[in-house]
Amino acid sequence: MNNCFDVEYGGRKRRVEAALGASLHNVLTRVKSHPQTYPEIDLAYSSTDPLLNPVILKLPANGLRLRFDGPDQRLRLIEVLDFSRGSLVYKNQDVLKGGKSTEGTATLQGPNFRHVYNRLFGPSYPGEYIPPTDPKSQYGTYVLSYPGVSFSFPLQHSAWSDSCDFVALLSSSAALPATSLAIFQGSSWPEARSKLFTQQPQYPRSSAVISKNRDAFADEIEMIHILGAGKLEAERRNNPPAQIILGETTPQDLIAEFGPPDAIYRKHDRRISIHRATGSGGTGDALRLSPSPGTGMEIPDTDHSSNNSVTDDSDEEVSPNSISDPTSLPAECFFNYFHHGFDAFISHPTTPGPAFPTSEITESSSQPSLPQLTVTKIILHGNVPGSYPFNRHRRSRWTIHLDESGDGLTSESPFDDISKRLREVWKDSNASPEEQRVMQRPMVLNRGWGDSPESSVEFLGGWEETTSRGPRTGPDGHDGGLGNTELFGFPGLLFEVLKNGAVSCLTVY
After folding, report:
1. Domain boundaries, given as residue ranges, for the chain
2. What's the alpha-carbon Rg for the chain, to the nearest Å?
3. CB atoms within 10 A of CB 180
4. pLDDT at residue 12 tops 70
5. Would you state the pLDDT for residue 430?
6. Contact 99, 111 (CB under 8 A)
7. Which pTM was predicted?
8. Per-residue pLDDT band at 462 (split at 50, 70, 90)
9. Residues whose CB is less than 8 angstroms from the CB of residue 327 and which lie 6 or more positions away in sequence, other chains included
10. Which of 19, 47, 10, 14 is nearest to 466 (CA)?
């Protein structure tokens, strides 16, 4: 059902590219690339629980509404709410044939039951009748379902009976043409709605993959497993997991597993290098975020990671030809994987963060080899609605495996829960109660000023639309607030957290 509908707007036919299972990033990017076809975009989400509740993309000028689940941000439901906004075609058959204009208006009603039954989809099992919620209303709703698609017909409540022949009833004057159409994954709407936002999507996150050779695209990442000691595992849709070992995985290894990056950037700006943990007695020691047993906490200071809305003179885009010639890569650069939801920092090998004390993962005993460039940091983007970098990456989901029980912290966990667990894990490694207090003290990032550390810090983002102090606006020139987020550091991990407790970005180093 996903790719079988064509919609004609303004005399131009355009195939509906938003297949079920597509990521919010993929769909929103496509919609925004056609402003004449989709002139209005309305995104609705929960400001308090943006990662748990559905995200709704409304296209009022097109009569469409798209619903995405919150945790994975994948398209679960496509609804046509206004049939007058475009000519809908299914397998070269006009869905609206037989539609009527409402008396006194130019609004085109949807298809009638006879057209759906005789011309489009044929016989169906009985549907579901929903009585009117308003006692004064004369019409309820009869939902007629086919595999993957359903129609809603207004039906006179007085005409309804459980013993009625639904075909005869919907063919009579008691039923009006359909007011909406829904596209979903499932054999019927009653069966699908109970697991609409939780079942495994049938199709991939990128619509382009559906109709093309799978070998032409890198396999999509389902989950990043953070094992500790600089070891990560990328769980993939169709292929075995891919391993990333900080300080050992090379740029060529990265490309072999995940394809070429969407962009490569290097950056010279080090305006917040004062905040690096430099050991005892220095300014950096006083300002460091948290202790890092075994390695020393370092605040990353060389990011581009595509989060900046404005590129300053310190940012340089590297030629894609550098990918095939590793000797031409700069000593420090970022591989930006927008469609995978992460960035990789490429530099000379450094010692990664320590293993979790509760884990059986062992730390590498090999010393870094300076001549060869490797991946030294992985930046996982949450794509949280309302944050400053929203829709620059698709959402990356992750799990932190603190021990072998499998009960780890996830990208959907509130940061209060994450912080509590990590502080418990590292409590025996703190040298003093002061270090324990420091671990709970965040650094604040301001995304509202163009000359702030936002343009050089490794975690960028966190402009929230609403806060406890009132509404904010995004980076559109309206000063609704500073848009601050907070950085919390733990050994080998750095979290950027929004005011609502959602993790906007996680760096593993």
Report:
1. 5-193, 218-508
2. 26
3. 18
4. no
5. 67
6. yes
7. 0.81
8. very low
9. none
10. 47
